[in-house]
Amino acid sequence: MNIHTFTVSPSLPKRLKPLMTIARNVRWCWNSEAVKLFQRMDFDLWESAYHNPIKVLGELSQEKLDELANDDSFLAHMENVAIDLEDYMRTQLWFDKQHPEAKNLHLCYFSMEFGLHESLPVYSGGLGLLAGDHLKSASDLGLPLIGIGLLYRHGYFRQYLNAEGWQQETYPENDFSNLPVELVRDANNDKIVFSLDFPGRQVFVQIWALQVGRITLYLLDTNLSRNNPEDRDITSQLYGGNEETRIQQEVVLGMGGIKGLLAMGIKPNICHMNEGHSAFLALERIRYFMTEHDLNFSEAAEIITASNIFTTHTPVPAGNDMFPPELMEKYFRSFYPGLGLGKEQFMGLGRQNPFDKNEPFCMTVLALRLASHSNGVSELHGQVSRKMWQNIWPGLHINEVPIDHITNGIHTTGWVSPELNQLFTRYLGPRWRMDSQKEKIWSRVDRIPDSELWRTHERRRERLVAFARKRMKEQMKARGALLSEIERTSELLDPEALTIGFARRFAAYKRGDMLLSDIERLRKIVGNEDRPVQILFAGKAHPADHLGKELIKKIVQTNTDPILKKRIMFLEDYDINVAHYLVQGVDVWLNNPRRPLEASGTSGMKVAANGGLNLSVLDGWWCEAYDGKNGWAIGNGEEYEDHAYQDSVEARDLYNILENEVIPLFYQRAQDGLPRGWIAMMKQSLRTISPVYSTNRMVIDYLEKFYLKGTAARISFLEENFVGARELAEWKHSIRRRWAQLEILSVSVDQKRTFKVGEKLPVTVETRLGDIAPDELRVEAYCGRLDAMGQIMDGESFKLELSGEPNDGKHWFHGEIPLGRAGRGGYGIRILPSHKLMIQRFEPGLILWG
After folding, report:
1. Which end of the chain is more exposed for a tag (fewer CB within 10 A), N or C?
2. CB atoms < 10 A from the CB of 801, how many?
3. Which CATH number does 94-405 carry?
4. Which CATH number fits domain 443-690: 3.40.50.150, 3.40.50.300, 1.10.240.10, 3.40.50.2000?
């Protein structure tokens, strides 16, 4: 049967037309007045539509719409929200004021998932939430940025638990007609469709647009009738399918993302890869530049690398996408000849050792090789990443591996509760929303009366308990529980009890069951009638992670214990909606990953912005944030080889902190009933964490550390018919060919073994350079303290200058090493390539140590 399709849109009275404009820009989700406007239309429908304004407008009866169109109070509310949106969209913002010189900056941010709101299920967890918050802050700051992702027909799975607590998954289909997305069309109103070369066929892709404040997010979709059924399913499910599905999705995201932008006439000058999923974009950008500008691979690669930014989020090698050579050959055999590369040259782009034919092709390695700036997402994760990927730069000290760090943050205004939002506006000033990264604003927290801060927080806890009870009742009904058991859900939890939250992906290293390691001790903690404690758990395990599912089952089965079942609850189907209730309502946020496996984490930042306190292992962002007065630390940052021993030690420490510090402080009340000591810690947490761990600060860091520098380098390579790119590419080829000629013949130093702090150590190096000119090199002394194994720690490099005239093919370099610290030190001599156009100091494979 030939089915003819049509779409029905809401029929809004003329006076209500602004509602559709408001609904189609998801800026409403971080504007509490806009949310109140939609709730006001029909609160029950708002809840049943899962807070989706497009769906609400489509399901409201015509009688209700007509009623609203004649409600002066509602119309005034709508007009205020509409005017606020108009003002937001046209106001000159931070970027225009701070960087008027960067008018030609055009950024593109690629991510496999974007977590913007629960009604837009194209995300799975932390990576997507970070990407969504990145867009929101970029919008607030006024950055000229667009996003690129995939529009999934099924998104990530929905979670429910069976009667035994075992996770089950469902994959409901997204109805795009009820989402604030629109197909991108050309000047003739035809939808823009482009194709990608897949093995033996073409795959066609269409583009949807989603407005996120001032930012447009473009989402790619292969569900077109002209594709075969298997290709229509490429964008069916986030992180679904097998290894071949994954490479197909990443080709669509990376290469398709670039082709889609070009099809829309968009030419970004900076591309930011959020994780390695989109790294194929670098290859497509290189191919485009080669074709359009008659450049070879090396020349085009210099331009593209200069303008690529890469952020890695994964602290373990197994978490980085790797594809076997035969799969890469299947999908790229017709592509790499067009780059002028042989098979092994191409495969080497994704290998730490380009010459190891057995090494798989790693997307992270590809991104690191073809990005001028790379970073981890916390200071500790930067260290872990440098250690993981140091083999790409053989011979380079781990501390100098060119992977920086920019610590994650949160979109503060999007996560702070409406009640606290009003309190902050009253005492911090209305600018706190737009300047959430400024410490001066958060220093005003002390102006908030303790009583107001505490009462506001208590209301949020009460709301969380009410939500949890309702959610548990729904869960028990779905599992077929007895009516008497369902009715008793109203007795679960206590709105005045100390409430601990633990919510995240359930993977073994996150140790979701640590609090259950000593059940008798736990029973005494939560069963204390005078100082009750309750714990809310939430989170999903990957469908294939049976160990993660076992952890969830273990928590759920505490409901067989008469004491624990009143105080411990697992909330199913963790998503942005559940997260809002939890981070806004808990007193303490528990995080106990096995260090150093938490790259950053952002949920604890959301809790801190809402006045909650963190109790966490010193991993990820908490290493940087913890000051001894703004929360609690489990352990002292130790790392163990024996994981069972580590779990035992840290579990005991967790119990001790709860019993001796957290619980007594919470229940220690002044004569007015306020926990003054607890409130002081809340304020210290708000003061020290909120301005630093915001995506406003994070996006500004990316702009000023990476985006602007990448743009400047790109511009320099484009000038005068790419003379800079051609020069640097030719020079790199030449220096690699000549590098084997270099020799360090001898090193002369002061023979003293002991020096005084403040003295300088003179060093002279004798070299033979062959055909390489001295100004093509940088000769350095790398100096620092020595550890017990005689290895340099915390090293610094000091340039040695050419000294005297060459003689018999030899050159001498001389310098003085300043000795600023007492203790046992050491140094090494090395030679690096040097060119005025190099962006990174270190070129993989080109370093000679004496």
Report:
1. N
2. 10
3. 3.40.50.2000
4. 3.40.50.2000
Condensed to tens digits (0 to 9), the pLDDT of residues 30-67 reads: 999 999 999 999 999 999 999 999 999 999 999 999 99
Side chain identity, residue 623: C
Closest CA to 536 of 591, 602, 603, 586: 586
The model's pLDDT over 619-643, given as tens digits with 9 standing for 90+, comes to 999 999 999 999 999 999 999 999 9
DSSP-assigned letters across all residues of 761-798: EEEEEEEE-TT--GGGEEEEEEEEEE-TTS-EEEEEEE
Q: How is residue 81 written in tokens?
A: 């929200």
Residue in 73, 76, 78, 77 with CA at minimum distance from that of residue 12: 78
Nearest to 454 by CA among 663, 669, 687: 669
- What letters, b where the CB count within 10 A reaches 16 and e where it falls short, cover 61-91? eeeebeebeeeeebeebbeebbeebeebeee
* Distance (Å) of CA 184 to CA 18, 150, 205, 217: 22, 14, 11, 11
3-state secondary structure (DSSP) of residue 681: helix
Residue 415 CA to residue 27 CA, distance in Å, equals: 13
Task: Report yes or no: 103 and 560 within 8 Å, Cβ to Cβ.
Answer: no
Q: 3-class SS at 726?
A: helix
pTM above 0.90, yes or no: yes
The residue type at 667: Y
Distance of CA 129 to the CA centre of its chain: 7
Indicate the helix (H) or strand (E) that contains 121: none
Query: What amino acid occupies position 558?
Result: T
Question: How many CB atoms are closer than 10 A to CB 846?
Answer: 18
